[in-house]
């Protein structure tokens, strides 16, 4: 049975409503997404920022602020620190970027006193609902770690597995991608992909199946795998996670899907943090922002269940 973002949103509605802290919430696109998320029963929000501007924007988009907690802080950097502290202290379940620039938003995430560090590297996960694929497709890392080392890739896998589980995939198939599906000593990406596969086989990476190196067609197209005779591979066109060799490959595939595939849906979060972080771009659609909130909500529930 096909799984898509509608299933993620349905799953969110099965548990208690989560709460987001929004840093510098005086942003019309973010407020519209927050309003829709609350309307759908996905999440409530604490709005931290310039209260006068928040109220002005809310009035312009016909958003009723009744019931929302608003923390007045006109300074964007201080707003970020106050908002992230709510997540750090467990008062909210997710943390979302508003009008503040990405650099200062990430500084608040990494703040030693009130931030969301867990000890390992952060990474970015984008979840796609592609009409021609019968499952959700997870892309990582397409936006955060520029040139991941082997150690970084281990952390990326460990950060991504809980996201897959939150979306109902208990034992995700992870494909470390390369230009070819065989090990070539002159292509470091293929060597590292094989090392990750061996580490998974040896129990050093758990909770998933890793099979690499794989070319993109073998990872997502069962017919291509069949034609290429890849019947001995653990992944034969049915990968759940595409693990990219660097940010260039990941970002190019991400944008190709977004701009060239009709009817596609997606949501993205930053992982490896104490709570899910919603780091959407100003160019992201309204639907993508709402989907990202829903994705963060199911991951927040997963992290809560793991912590017990």
Q: Which helices and strands appear, and what pairs or packs with what?
A:
Blueprint: H1 5-12, E1 18-23, H2 28-39, E2 43-49, H3 51-60, E3 69-72, H4 76-88, E4 94-97, H5 102-109, E5 123-129, E6 136-140, H6 150-166, E7 173-176, H7 188-201, E8 209-210, H8 216-220, H9 222-227, E9 241-243, H10 247-260, E10 265-271, E11 277-278, H11 286-307
Parallel strand pairs: 1-2, 1-4, 2-3, 4-11, 6-9, 7-8, 7-9
Antiparallel strand pairs: 5-6, 5-10
Helix pairs in contact: 1-11, 2-11, 4-5, 6-11
Describe this structure in words.
The protein is of the alpha/beta class and 308 residues long. Helix content is 42%, strand content 17%. It has helices at 5-12, 28-39, 51-60, 76-88, 102-109, 150-166, 188-201, 216-220, 222-227, 247-260, 286-307; strands at 18-23, 43-49, 69-72, 94-97, 123-129, 136-140, 173-176, 209-210, 241-243, 265-271, 277-278. A six-stranded mixed beta sheet has the order 8-7-9-6-5-10, with helices on both faces. The chain has a five-stranded parallel beta sheet with strand order 3-2-1-4-11, with helices on both faces. Helix 2 packs across helix 11 and helix 4 packs parallel to helix 5 (102-109). The protein is globular and about 60 Å long.
Please name the defining characteristics of this protein.
alpha/beta, 2 domains, six-stranded mixed β-sheet, 308 residues, 11 strands, Isopropylmalate Dehydrogenase, Rossmann fold
